[in-house]
Design goal:
CATH architecture of chain A: 3-Layer(aba) Sandwich
CATH topology of chain B: ABC transporter involved in vitamin B12 uptake, BtuC
Oligomer: heterodimer
Strand content of chain A: 25-35%
Order of helices and strands of chain B: HHHHHHHEHHHHHHHEHHH
Distance between the termini of chain B: 24 Å
Largest interface: A-B, 34 and 33 residues
Largest sheet of chain A: 6 strands, mixed
Structural class of chain B: mainly alpha
Distance between the termini of chain A: 67 Å
CATH topology of chain A: Rossmann fold
Number of strands of chain B: 2
Number of domains of chain B: 1
Radius of gyration of chain B: 23 Å
CATH class of chain B: Mainly Alpha
CATH class of chain A: Alpha Beta
Order of helices and strands of chain A: EEEHEEHEHEEHHEHEHEEHH
Helix content of chain B: 55-70%
């Protein structure tokens, strides 16, 4: 048994002539939060969809609990325990908290052909689960539209965990949130990891990623620029890697040069 | 009062939460989609109670009359409402009614089929056409408005062309004699509770004909179907997994797919539902009139959608109720019949229908904002 829960080895994905991902490798242990950082167009979305089973990688392998895995559909990824929370959260704002929590996997009771949606049990579980993360849903039959952005994010994460996710893939969970809401979500992510889940946190916000991450993988133009443990890298270094720091350094030198010439 | 409600809550074992505001029953009602239709139907009954209370509109005969009209509309409005909650439209309902009518009449009259086989044939055609509508919408991703608009023309045209080709005319009469002793037709053609009406008549509680039989002979089949379908649809929407999938498919197609809801299958089944409801409508009307008419059901799709909208369905899907659509149908049915009992010219009915719909849409839009606003 290797120390890693899940390994993505040398993943590549091509769309026709476009190389969307090239040789990306990521390894996660239980309880680890890996932050996947990258600017727009770095290939984050393609990577998420590959992890979630939407795309099949053209090269490379996915190893989950020491077994090589091939996903034919998002359902396969879900079934083995890779739970993906997309940016749109897959929540319906006009539906109740409970109906959203159990959407697609409603508990049933009763005789065959007369099975009913066990809404009482669903209400209890939903309220309990939300309570555990410190969100008191005042009433589980209230519409999700009445919840704050952070609460919705937590609901979506909580749902993924309840339905058996061992690896959580979170797509920009804090991008649309204010400071307070974002810290609520980040706190919950840390708590989930401390209970033994492996978390892949996709973001372009280093300030949100750095405090919670154990390791950082930087993606640039479809290639991984390496994975760094927190002790080996500073926030500033990460930021400059993401933003194409070398280019900015070059720009600075050029500006100084222009300055010098003008002054002479 | 507050003490009482607290004790009820703790009995249920739910966690008491100081942030849980005591909600008045009125607020709870305000969060239900059928509120507007409920208020509307109460207003309509008060209005006709005052204006036409002594004209016989609310006698047994008069009541069954407007209930029959409401029920016929209700049968298709409920199916249309479920489809709308699922996020789609069906504009081919009216044409499907006409088509189903000749599917019953032509085999029975011209090909010598027993009536019950032609009824089954009509339902089989409905399932096929509903399936086709659904698969077209799901596979192509085209708006259902366009796909079913095309089907509206195709079915109406086919109905007319086939009927004229086979019969040389546009009506197929002569069905009435076939109803008796048929093993299925009674489902769509029998007045129920006749004993009750006979008894009421003998007690002189309801109006009688000159020969002593009651004027109202029983509950028409449309009303029984209407009540049964309302209950069935409400049970599905509120109490089953499939019901949750309908709301989810209409509320957010992509999100629902991502969490494993079979959105395509849900939508296809709802299209089959509207086509089958149209066929039930057609069976009742054709057997009641004893003839099929190629123009039967014209514009019924719009009335069904109007009733669903008045009943609280959102045009964007994901919200609505079957009871609301049923109440919407009752409002339209009551007004369309009740207007005969008043001094108002019946030409004004359509003005009322449109006005009612506008008010309902504005009202429902306001309610939706209320429901989803962050508190």
């Amino acid at each position: 048994m290797s120390e890693y829960l899940v390994q993505f080895n040398n993943i590549s994905k091509f769309f026709g002539k476009v190389i969307a991902l090239k040789d990306v490798t990521m390894k996660l242990k239980k309880g680890e939060i890996m932050c996947l950082l990258g600017d727009n167009g770095a290939g984050k979305s393609t990577l998420i969809k590959t992890l979630a089973g939407v795309h099949k990688p053209d090269e490379g392998e996915i190893i989950f609990e020491d077994q090589k895995i091939v996903f034919d559909s998002p359902r396969d990824a879900l079934d083995i325990g890779i739970g993906t929370v997309y940016q749109d959260l897959a929540l319906v704002s006009l539906m109740s908290v409970t109906r959203n929590f159990f959407m697609g996997r409603e508990p049933q009771k009763g005789l065959p052909f007369f099975k009913t949606f066990d809404i009482d049990r669903a209400n209890t579980i939903a309220a309990e689960r939300m309570g555990q993360i410190g969100i008191d849903v005042r009433d589980p039959s209230q519409a999700v539209g009445t919840m704050s952005g952070g609460e919705r994010q937590c609901l979506a994460i909580s749902r993924a965990i309840y339905f058996g996710a061992k690896v959580l893939v979170l797509d920009e969970p804090t991008s649309a949130l204010g400071v307070h809401q974002a810290s609520m979500v980040l706190k919950y992510i840390v708590k989930a990891a401390s209970q033994g889940l492996a978390v892949i946190l996709i973001t372009h916000n280093v300030h949100h990623a750095y405090p919670v991450g154990n390791s950082f993988t930087v993606l640039n133009r479809g290639k991984s620029m390496g994975t760094f443990q927190k002790k080996d890298i500073s926030r500033e270094k990460l930021l400059s890697m993401m933003a194409g720091g070398e280019e900015l350094d070059k720009l600075e030198v050029e500006l100084k040069e222009m300055d010098r010439i003008e002054n002479n | 009062m507050s003490v009482k409600s607290e004790s009820i809550q703790s009995k249920k074992g739910s966690v008491q939460d100081e942030r849980l505001k005591k909600i008045s029953p009125f607020r709870v009602l305000l969060n239900r989609p059928e509120l507007g239709a409920l208020g509307g139907s109460i207003l309509v009954f008060i209005f006709f109670g005052i204006v036409a209370g002594d004209t016989g509109m609310f006698s047994a005969y008069g009541t069954l009359n407007f209930l029959d009209v409401s029920a016929n509309l209700g049968i298709i409005a409920i199916a249309a409402a479920m489809l709308m909650i699922g996020g789609e439209f069906d504009l081919s309902i009216g044409s499907m009614i006409g088509f189903a009518g000749i599917c019953i009449a032509i085999p029975a009259i011209y090909w010598g089929w027993p009536l019950w086989t032609s009824i089954i044939f009509a339902f089989a055609m409905a399932v096929l056409i509903g399936y086709f509508n659904g698969i077209m919408v799901v596979k192509t991703g085209l708006p259902s408005f366009i796909v079913t608009l095309a089907m509206l023309f195709i079915l109406r045209g086919a109905t007319l062309a086939i009927t004229r080709l086979i019969t040389g005319r546009t009506q197929v009469p002569g069905l009435r004699v076939l109803i008796e002793d048929d093993p299925i037709a009674w489902l769509f053609a029998t007045d129920t509770f006749q004993w009750l009406f006979t008894w009421l008549g003998s007690m002189k509680l309801i109006a009688l004909r000159t020969d002593g039989t009651p004027l109202a002979t029983g509950i028409p089949p449309s009303v029984i179907w209407f009540i049964a379908l309302t209950l069935f649809a409400t049970w599905i929407l509120m109490k089953t997994r499939y019901g949750n999938w309908i709301f989810a498919s209409g509320g957010d197609k992509v999100g629902a797919t991502n969490v494993g809801v079979p959105v395509g299958r849900v939508k296809i089944s709802l299209f089959i539902g509207t086509a089958v409801a149209s066929t039930i409508f057609a069976c009742i009307q054709v057997l009641d009139a004893g003839s099929a008419d190629t123009m039967r059901g014209t514009l019924k799709e719009l009335e069904a959608i109007a009733a669903a909208v008045v009943g609280g369905c959102l045009l964007t899907g994901g919200y609505g109720s079957a009871i609301g659509a049923a109440l919407g149908a009752i409002i339209f049915g009551t007004v369309s019949m009740g207007i005969f009992y008043t001094d108002v010219d019946t030409d004004w009915f359509k003005v009322f229908l449109g006005g009612m719909m506008l008010i309902a849409v504005v009202f429902n839009n306001y309610i939706r904002k209320k429901v989803t606003e962050t508190k």
